[in-house]
Amino acid sequence: MTSKKQLKARIRARMAKTGESYTTARAHVAGSASSSSSDGGWRFAGGRHPSSAAITSVLVNQGAAVSEPLVFLAGGGIGAGYILWEFQHDASRHVVLGFRNQWQYHDRWMAKTLTRLGVPFDEHRTSGVRAASDRLAAELDAGRPCVVLPDRHRTGYWQLPDALEGHGGHPVVAYRRDEDGVYLDDRGQAPICVPRERFDAARARVGSYKNVMHVLGEAKITEAALAEAAREGLRDCAAHLSATSDSFSLPAWRKWARLLVDTRNAKAWPKVFADRRGLADALLSIWEGAEPVGIDGGNLRDLFADALDEAAALLDRPSLAESAARFREIRGLWHELAEAALPAEVPEFARIRELTAAIKESVMADGTAGGPQAAQAAKELWAARATANASLATLPDTLPLFADLSSRLGTIYEAERSAITTLT
């Protein structure tokens, strides 16, 4: 019989090798018949993308019959975005990729998604830490779970280094509290408890989303409401990705492809990485961003494809199932790009991938109980990243790598531009 330790090791190995999410890798290794877990009256529904999973978890715990793919579609489905950040305080460089509709606007996305689904909600913003903490406590004591947006570093359980404090976070569900702290659902299968003072500080650290909180009311989601939400989401997705913005719409991929091979632009990769500084971090952030092994859920094209399959039946539009197949192919293109950026054939990269997967698996499977394992993996991960950055500093020629990534991005851009024309 396979022990729990052996099972976890096999799941982590599969995640690192294939780039699959914890849920998908676990289903392949252990089968999908395992029952969902709970914490008191709260049932963990899992999830793939933080924003859509948070809403889905609250609705499922209310008894609503709704899936994460349809929630994701109601919010406009997929998006596009690229930013290269350069930080002087630790000489690091990171690539931020946006894969959800309006990925840069948490509050706008929440509002339109909930409105389309017909879910009543209250949005609260409190400038003071104590007032925000008291408001959250009052909602939880009344049995109302809240969607909040804490800083990842400050919450602690993702085991991020101090250099990433204030770099932002993603939505999680706070569903109860006690003398030990606030209990969170972050798409996993076990409770995550964060001490109250630490959690208060994490909520206050997110800048423009300081102490933001959404409290969802009881919703009665009918099939007709879901169908209309799906229609609006499809229209929104097509319009959003047809926009001309080269930062927050499909042209972002084309712009990034050009910057990978340009030799004149100050933000072009041959110029930015002429000294090779932080190159391993940048390549890892591509892999983390595009693959579900990372914190944010990956490129989301498979989640969107699942939504299109559901919408095909809901709206009686068989052509959407054909579009779903195309987006699964595009998901494969993103996987190949991630593999090219951080190939497992390079031993240093393989180890970084394994450690990244170990942290994700510990958080998803064990929550707070997995903290020691996640902390040990994180200690090794950040040491391995530093070693890889130093190693790549001696790389003689980056141009072939950048040219390959550029070509792959160009293919993705054309594929997605063609695919969105079939949505409306």
TrEMBL record:
Q: Which domain of life is it from?
A: Bacteria
| Record-annotated DUF4872 domain positions | 202-359
Q: Which residues form the Butirosin biosynthesis protein H N-terminal domain?
A: 49-186
Q: Which Pfam families match?
A: BtrH_N, DUF4872
Q: What is this protein called?
A: Butirosin biosynthesis protein H, N-terminal
Native species of this protein? Answer: Nonomuraea solani
What lineage, starting at the top, does this entry show?
Bacteria, Bacillati, Actinomycetota, Actinomycetes, Streptosporangiales
